[in-house]
Amino acid sequence: MMKILLDIYEIFVGLFSITYILLYLTLAFLSYYGIKQYLNTKHFITNNVLVKSNHIPGVSVIAPAFNEGATVVYNIKSLLSLNYPKYEVVLINDGSTDDTLEKLIREFELVKVDFYYEAKIPTGPVRGHYKSTNPIYSKLLVVDKENRKSKADASNTGINSTKYPLILCTDVDCILKSDAIIKLAKPFIENKKRIIATGAGIRSSNSCEVKDGFLVKIHFPTGWYARFQELEYVRAFLMGRMALSQINSLLLVSGALGLFDKEIVIKAGGYWHKSLGEDMELVMRMRKYMYENKLPFAIKYIPESLCWTEVPGNKTILIRQRMRWARGLIQTLFLHKNLLFKPKYQRTAFFILPYFFIFEFMIPVIEVVGMIATILFLIFFEVNYLFFFYISVVVYFFYLIITITSIFLDDVIYKNYANARELMILILMAVIEPFVYHPVNLYASLKGYYHFIRQKEQNWGNMQRQGFSTKPE
Asked: Which PANTHER family does this chain map to (predicted)?
């Protein structure tokens, strides 16, 4: 009996490893093809043509802020300096208890105005809307609202207050590339099929030089955890999201930078204030709405880094963040489980949900169960040691090839690193990542699942930030 169980286990390990490798080879090919296609066609409509066009769609930039008094003025000035002919900045003061609103009023010469606020998406009470008396800041709208301990509620308030058909959702402390809106908006202009959302690469701003809200110089992160996340982001965005974009299977547009079709966002119900993965959950409902109304659509990914944000700098904050991500994932999958294998929902039902269930949600569980089973078999039974060794080596080196390819592809195309030394450090991080960084992520994911099952209180937690420096750390 034990011999049969051991044979079944070896077959399962072998088949799963082969499936894993084949899947990521497919994703790598799709990603390469997508990036090549993007680079070949990126000048089809140049940025200069878009900037001068009278028919370009208007964009509303939405940025919630809670107790950001220390940097909010610089952050807003940065957003007001983006290179796009028709846009506004909607800053939502989410019931800040510091001097955020007072600084905004003083710096931008704001006055309270009569504003027709239509709550197309239900939100908490709004205290008022503010506009500047200075024409220089005519693009700025500040919304003051009561705090409901939910970024989703603040974002929905901003959506209700916008005037343009496209909405760019970001965080007030994110630093956007000057042409970010242009590049995110291009798919909405160029594609015949209706684009409902676009996203782009996010990078770590840890150790970067920032002055008055503007990114002065990009520096390679100095902290270990920030470096691991830099590596993780490069691989996930270039090899993961770019590939899924090619087959219209994106389920996640980052909350730090995403451009959306406002009409579809509103009809889908906006952000859900109880979600810990509100960006993924919104995209799921937008896809669902399009399917149910038989409307052809696409979600596109831009393979460029257009946003820099501070990532967790230590293990405690990283675990807290990844626990929330894990709970957001299982929450979204559980909430929309009724879509699974229903023909009406097409690729979402037959590919996207199974993919995210097996290769995102189940992987941490499979890893732990597999490690425990392997240890037990090695201790109590006569097993084929070479089989497990070869499988482990093959999977490890495959992971290494995929990761190093992502690093070099990113550097060849975008030149984000200053010298060969930084590239070598990142490659070294890739070599040790499975043994040093991955176990932390694994622990955080399992802890997040446990908290979801136990129905512990769901909140964002205090994601402490160190802030930007004006010189390298």
From this structure: POLY-BETA-1,6-N-ACETYL-D-GLUCOSAMINE SYNTHASE
C-alpha–C-alpha distance, residues 112 and 127, integer Å: 10
Read off φ and ψ for residue 439, nearest 5 degrees: -60, -35
Angle between helix axes 151-160 and 278-292 (nearest 10 degrees) is 50
Give the global pTM.
Answer: 0.89
The position carrying tokens 């802020």 is 65
**Would you place residue 52 in the very low, low, confident or very high pLDDT band (cuts 50, 70, 90)?**
low
Q: Let me know: does 307 contact 175? Beta carbons within 8 Å.
A: yes
- If DSSP codes are grouped into helix, strand and coil, which group holds residue 211? strand
End-to-end CA distance of the chain: 60
Radius of gyration, CA atoms only, the chain: 23
Contacts of residue 106, Cβ cutoff 8 Å, sequence gap at least 6? none
Q: Which residues pair with residue 299 across a beta bridge?
A: 197
- At 370-407, the pLDDT tens digits run 888 888 877 777 777 787 788 889 889 999 998 988 88
How many Cα neighbours within 13 Å face the side chain of 451? 20
Four-residue CA torsion sign, 35, 347, 250, 325: negative
- Distance CA(423)–CA(230), nearest Å, equals 12
Say whether 118 sits in a helix, a strand or coil.
coil
User: pLDDT digit string (tens) for 171-211?
Assistant: 988 889 889 999 999 999 888 899 999 999 888 888 777 77
